[in-house]
Amino acid sequence: DVKVTQSSRYLVKRTGEKVFLECVQDMDHENMFWYRQDPGLGLRLIYFSYDVKMKEKGDIPEGYSVSREKKERFSLILESASTNQTSMYLCASSFATFRTDNYGYTFGSGTRLTVV
Amino acid sequence: DQQVKQNSPSLSVQEGRISILNCDYTNSMFDYFLWYKKYPAEGPTFLISISSIKDKNEDGRFTVFLNKSAKHLSLHIVPSQPGDSAVYFCAPRYSGTYKYIFGTGTRLKVLA
Question: Most exposed among A54, A78, A85, B87, judged by the fewest C-beta atoms under 10 Å?
Answer without folding.
Answer: A54
